[in-house]
Structures are given as structure tokens and as C-alpha cells.
């Protein structure tokens, strides 16, 4: 499969996204920045990739409407691919998803996010710009519920990104349009399926927003995402999507059912070589509800700034918490990459032999040679014995595995201390 080559290259680079277009170079997004990652991709190879990933039915749909989305697993990497037509021909954007579903702690989110998963009814909105990790945060909230309470969870996604395993909860995942023709129909159906939690991957249209608000008011906990730059913009966008004569009732409905609203951006921590979300969190205090009802979304910033004791976070306050945080969770090493036969991947974790082992090896060689000489061995035999001794692999205890590319200065200093203090076994 041609796509496997691209995914492997992206994994080596540590890319979050790949971009391809007919007769243009392969482009990868690494730590939020675009960079050329390969040679020009001919049009026939892009067509081949589309046919492989979409299948016959999906390819026919793509040819009909000019775009198609699909989520697949390639070499153990869960990917979301979006194919679309451009002036040059066919293009595709591929998002490489996390290899496993993480909880709130593993996503490096503040513990206050657990409060968003505690209520049994209401609306939780996760917002942010494209590529800010909204789907990952949404999955972390679902996993938080899954690990702590027995709930019937119905998800509506387009496409399916993360695949959940039932733990305490029972999770039913439905893909739009594979399992339901639209989000509108899916929400209507879900309300007859006895859910405790309803997950909507994105509120895109006024009708989906209306049905989402109705579901949150009828005894369900609803988790949804939308695009926005901050919390105030998310509220404004949601309410302004409706006709002017309905906006007052929508604001009242939203104020009554809101459990929490988060907006996030991804920040690169150079000291840790890690991208983590920086968040703004609005909780439904009396002041926040009143501001939403009145439609004074410009005052949301003041509500956030004065609501620290009620669990609210501004981007600036959250940044201060990030500056003080030292115990970040790093992604698990990619086992598939280390086990690959590709030498470029194997070099990512070179084994460094300690100085103590090297120093200890010299006397051992001298003693071996002396013993052999006393036994009457010839010079050729001694040389052969020495070569055999040198060829022996180092004991496992004398090898330190070092993921050199991922180490910061503090970790390198700690490694150097270990090497200096290492004693021969």
C-alpha cells in the first residue's frame, strides 16, 4: 500500500499531519510547522492512495461530490484522511492520531477537566481551532467516564477516530454517514436508544446545535466540539447561528444547561520537546449564566478573570500553571518503530556503553592474554582469543538504552551522572 510509505515517513519525523496534492511535494506538519518531507507525488499515486483507503464505494462517492473522509489504521497508526479536489487535481490531508486513548492525566490536561465529566446532565463544549487536539480531549473525557462509572455512551462521529473498549461503561460508536445518514438523524435516533451520555464530534449546523441543546435539557450529558478561538467566540458563534428572533431563547437554553466550556491551543514546550494543550475554561457560575442570557459575550473575559475560585481558567492563568508544572506525561515509545527493520528507526534509541565498562574491559583482556601465554599458546592463538573476547556482546546490565533525540539537558545530565557512578559488575 502506497500510503504506508507516507505514514512511515511521518512517524519517523514525528509529524501530526501529512499533506499531499497531485504533482506537489509531500509536506508534513511537525510541531505545528509545515516542512517538505518528500519528493513530488505524481497524480496516479494520489489516485491509487484514494482508491486503497476509500474503497470502491467511497471512491465513487468522492467522484460524485468532490470530497470524502475516512478513518483507518495503517501499520498500527490510527489515521484520519480527508480527500478533496483542487485546481491541480486530487489532494489529501492525513491526521496521525494518538496510538492509544489517553485519560486526562496522560493528555497533560489540568485535573479540573475531571469536573466536566462528573455531571449526569447538561452540555460540555470542547472548542479550539483546527488541529488543537479537540478530538483527543473529547476522547479523554469519554475514557474518564468509561473508567469510573457505568454509563451507556452513544457517540456520533464523522469519521470515527478513536475506537473505545468497554470498561465500566457501554460505548456504542456510530459513524456518519456509515451508520446514520446525518448528525440530525443520528441525534434523533440516539434519544430513543436510552443513552446516559451522548457524544457529538462536531456541531456544524444550526439544526445540530438545536438538537444538541434539546438533548442536554432532557436528562442527558452531552459532549460536543466546535471551532473557535476562545470561549466568548464559541458562545457567540453558537447563538448567532440561529435567526435573530430565536437567539434570546437559545441563550437562555444554553445558560441553563451549560456544564462547562473549554477552548484550547497546542503549545510546544522546548524544554520537554513536547506539545501540550493550553486551555481556557468557563464554568457555569451565576455570573456566567447571567452574562450568557444577556448576550454580553464581550464580558466573558471578565467572568473568566474573576472566576478562579469557581474553577475557571484564563489562558494566562493556565500558562502560569504550565510554567510551574514539571511532571509532564511523555508519549510512550513507538514499539512498532523500534521493532522495524528500517535502520533509520533503529537509530532513534542507540545503546551507549558506560565509561566504567570500557575501563574495566582493558584489564580483563590483559589477564586473558597473560593466562593464555602461560599455557603455551602461540601468538596467533592469542590474537584469535583476544578477537573472540572483543566480539562478545556486553552484558545487559552494562548497556544503557538512551532515546537520544527525546532527551532534554536535565535528562542528559542525569545520564552523565549514571555513567560516571557506574561500577563494573
Description:
40% of the residues lie in helices and 24% in strands. With 425 residues, the chain is of the alpha/beta class. The chain has three domains: 2-96, Beta-Lactamase, CATH 3.30.450.90; 111-324, Rossmann fold (3-Layer(aba) Sandwich); 351-421. Residues 335-399 have low confidence and may be disordered.
CATH topology of the largest domain, by name, is Rossmann fold
Rg for CA atoms: 28 Å
Count of helices?
15
What is the C-level CATH assignment of the largest domain?
Alpha Beta
Secondary-structure element string:
HEEEHEEEEHEEHEHEHHEEHHHHHEHHEH
> Termini, distance in Å?
49 Å
Structural class of the helices, strands and pairings? alpha/beta
Summarize this structure briefly.
With 425 residues, the chain is an alpha/beta fold. It has helices at 2-13, 43-65, 134-148, 183-190, 206-217, 231-240, 247-257, 286-294, 300-306, 315-324, 335-339, 343-346, 355-374, 379-391, 409-421; strands at residues 17-21, 24-30, 33-41, 67-74, 77-86, 89-96, 122-128, 152-157, 170-175, 197-200, 221-227, 258-269, 274-282, 351-353, 399-401. The longest helix has 23 residues, at 43-65.
Q: What are the main properties of this structure?
A:
425 residues, alpha/beta, Beta-Lactamase, Rossmann fold, 3 domains, seven-stranded mixed beta sheet, six-stranded antiparallel beta sheet, 15 strands, 24% strand, globular
Which helices and strands appear, and what pairs or packs with what?
Elements: H1 2-13, E1 17-21, E2 24-30, E3 33-41, H2 43-65, E4 67-74, E5 77-86, E6 89-96, E7 122-128, H3 134-148, E8 152-157, E9 170-175, H4 183-190, E10 197-200, H5 206-217, E11 221-227, H6 231-240, H7 247-257, E12 258-269, E13 274-282, H8 286-294, H9 300-306, H10 315-324, H11 335-339, H12 343-346, E14 351-353, H13 355-374, H14 379-391, E15 399-401, H15 409-421
Helix pairs in contact: 4-5, 5-7, 7-8, 13-14
Amino acid at each position: 500500500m502506497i500510503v504506508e510509505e507516507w505514514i512511515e515517513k511521518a512517524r519517523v519525523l514525528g509529524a501530526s499531519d501529512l499533506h499531499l496534492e497531485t504533482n506537489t511535494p509531500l509536506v508534513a506538519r511537525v510541531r505545528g510547522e509545515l516542512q517538505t518531507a518528500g519528493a513530488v507525488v505524481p497524480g496516479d499515486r494520489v489516485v491509487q492512495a484514494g482508491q486503497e483507503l476509500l474503497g470502491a464505494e467511497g471512491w465513487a462517492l468522492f467522484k460524485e461530490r468532490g470530497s470524502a473522509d475516512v478513518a483507518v489504521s495503517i501499520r498500527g497508526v490510527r489515521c484520519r484522511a480527508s480527500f478533496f479536489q483542487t485546481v491541480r487535481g486530487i489532494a489529501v490531508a492525513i491526521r496521525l492520531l494518538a496510538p492509544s486513548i489517553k485519560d486526562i492525566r496522560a493528555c497533560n490536561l489540568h485535573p479540573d477537566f475531571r469536573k466536566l465529566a462528573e455531571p449526569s446532565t447538561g452540555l460540555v463544549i470542547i472548542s479550539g481551532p483546527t488541529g488543537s487536539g479537540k478530538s483527543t480531549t473529547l476522547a479523554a473525557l469519554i475514557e474518564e467516564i468509561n473508567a469510573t462509572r457505568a454509563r451507556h455512551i452513544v457517540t456520533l462521529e464523522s469519521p470515527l477516530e478513536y475506537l473505545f473498549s468497554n470498561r465500566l461503561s457501554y460505548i456504542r460508536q456510530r459513524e456518519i454517514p456509515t451508520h446514520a445518514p446525518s448528525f440530525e438523524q443520528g441525534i434523533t435516533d440516539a434519544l430513543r436508544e436510552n443513552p446516559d451520555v451522548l457524544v457529538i464530534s462536531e456541531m456544524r449546523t444550526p439544526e445540530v446545535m438545536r438538537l444538541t441543546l434539546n438533548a442536554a435539557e432532557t436528562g442527558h450529558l452531552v459532549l460536543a466540539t466546535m471551532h473557535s478561538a476562545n470561549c466568548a467566540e464559541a458562545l457567540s458563534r453558537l447563538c448567532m447561528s440561529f435567526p435573530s428572533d430565536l437567539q434570546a431563547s437559545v441563550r437562555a437554553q444554553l445558560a441553563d444547561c451549560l456544564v462547562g466550556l473549554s477552548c484550547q491551543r497546542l503549545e510546544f514546550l522546548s524544554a520537554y520537546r513536547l506539545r501540550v494543550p493550553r486551555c481556557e475554561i468557563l464554568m457555569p457560575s451565576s455570573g456566567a449564566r447571567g452574562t450568557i442570557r444577556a448576550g454580553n459575550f464581550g464580558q466573558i473575559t471578565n467572568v473568566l478573570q474573576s472566576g478562579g475560585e469557581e474553577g475557571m481558567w484564563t489562558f494566562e492563568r493556565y500558562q502560569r500553571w504550565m510554567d510551574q508544572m514539571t511532571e509532564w506525561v511523555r508519549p510512550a515509545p513507538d514499539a512498532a518503530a523500534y521493532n522495524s527493520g528500517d535502520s533509520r528507526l533503529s537509530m532513534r534509541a542507540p545503546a551507549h556503553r558506560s565509561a566504567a565498562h570500557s575501563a574495566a574491559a582493558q584489564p580483563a583482556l590483559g589477564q586473558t592474554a597473560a593466562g593464555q601465554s602461560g599455557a603455551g599458546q602461540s601468538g596467533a592463538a592469542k590474537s584469535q582469543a583476544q578477537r573472540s573476547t572483543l566480539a562478545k556482546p556486553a552484558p545487559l546490565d552494562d548497556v544503557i538504552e538512551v532515546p537520544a533525540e527525546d532527551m532534554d539537558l536535565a535528562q542528559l545530565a542525569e545520564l552523565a551522572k549514571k555513567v560516571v557512578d557506574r561500577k563494573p559488575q
